[in-house]
Amino acid sequence: MLRLIEESTAYIQSKTDSFRPQFGIILGTGLGKLTDEIEVEFVLNYADIPHFPLATVEFHKGKLIFGTLSGKKVVCMQGRFHYYEGYSMQQVTFPVRVMKLLGIERLFVSNAAGGLNPLFKESDLMIIDDHISLFLPENPLVGENIMGDRFPDMSEPYDIHTIEKALLIATQNALEGIHRGVYVSVAGPNLETKAEYRLLRMLGADAVGMSTVPEVIVARQMDIPVFGISVITDMGIPEILQKAELSRILEAAHKAEPTMTFMIKELIKTF
Ligand code: HPA
């Protein structure tokens, strides 16, 4: 596995003049617009990178973008890999390990999620301050131990200083609909039943989604500080649950995109 990660990294470095990104960014479903803000230097298709998994879901563009955002060097994954697409957890998290070898010092992750906290509404943002991984069918660290601790600490998966900065940015700019909460990950691809939404809420989660946690676990194993943000695309409140439609989920994500983009740009400026 380590050899494959090193070969991917070597290929990328050979195609990018050994560009050394300071920040890694993973963009979630319907949240690709941040890339418009990047002064792009290099773009690589996942399909061309040796050993990289291939993006299968049509609305994931599958590109690794290298450039400058808020004056800092970034590598941005436009499109990520999900367990529900049939990838193993090792494949889902492969790019995070590659980004580590490329030199990233921090990771920013975004996702689309269902709201469980009744105070949330569609197109609000939730700054992730903790997560629950226990519903995932596999853990990305199972197997041979590479690039980090065997039993990594998870007492602070999301960097508290970055969370505080994000909350300050929200206040100073009078951003509305910004919350802080716990993200619970599930495998998907079906959405939750009413009974499942109720259960997840009872267990202490504020939002539910099908991504992010595997990548965060792997990043933390390698000691990379993480900032995570969820866009609430639908509300999982059993009493008022509506039929889920992908088009509405994407529409809600697009509505929140400018605020999310602003938040990440402003945060990156502070480092
Ligand atoms: N559940 C799980 N994943 C999701 C949801 C949801 O309600 N909305 C967007 N991703």
Count of helical segments?
Answer: 6
Per CATH, the superfamily is Nucleoside phosphorylase domain
From the 3D coordinates, which CATH architecture would you assign? Answer: 3-Layer(aba) Sandwich
Biggest sheet layout: 5 strands, mixed, barrel
Spatial arrangement of strands, main beta sheet: 5-8-7-6-9
Beta-sheet strand percentage? Answer: 15-25%
Question: How many strand units?
Answer: 9
Q: Which structural category fits the helices and strands?
A: alpha/beta
Shape descriptor reads: globular
What would the CATH topology be? Rossmann fold
The CATH class label is Alpha Beta
Small molecules in complex? hypoxanthine
Distance between the first and last residues' Cα:
32 Å
The amount of helix comes to 25-40%
Mean pLDDT: 93
Helix and strand string, N-terminal first? Answer: HEEEEHEEHEHEHEH
**Number of domain modules:** 1
